[in-house]
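Changelog note: in this version the structure field was regenerated for every chain. One regenerated record is shown below for reference.
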Amino acid sequence: MAKKRKRKIDNECRQFQVEWSLKYFFIKSSENALCVICNETVAVMKEYKLRRHHQSKHQDKYAQLEGKVRAENFYKVQNKLTSQMTLFSKSSNEN
């Protein structure tokens, strides 16, 4: 009997697509996709996984936003998150 080889996600070379940022409010953080709204990560960078997270958790608040308003909202939330991340890294570096 031949053994079945398990598929490894690392071998599939999944990459974060820039258009997912505005569509689903995600950014790439280290090797994972990070939701800028709730700070949850999605380990596998598939559009389906990001879309499912966005629809199940943030659909009611962010579905009606389109175009320029959506982009402004995304950048505002992203800047807030990055400022929090830099604050923590600065304090750990000082210690």
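Spot check on this record: The chain is about 50% helix and 10% strand. The chain has a mean pLDDT of 81.
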